[in-house]
Here is the input.
Amino acid sequence: MKMSEPTLYIVATPIGTLADLSPRARDILSSAGFIACEDTRHTKELFMALALSHGPLVSLHEHNERQKSGELAERLKSGPQQTAALVSDHQ
Here is the structure.
């Protein structure tokens, strides 16, 4: 997947059957420059179960979103090909 503009993807993750992850979601998750997630431990387990490589995992949840949102936006704008994926761990 070729990504050129800074982009934030909101990616739905499967709630039960890991096979329900779409091919497009798989491509985005494995090629994003970083992944913002509520719980890095849970998201790391998801990536391991799906045998996906990934960029750095960054914690973003209701208790730090005011502080982290600006940092993540700056990180996203830091390069012409910077991309991020945002996943939710709530089921």
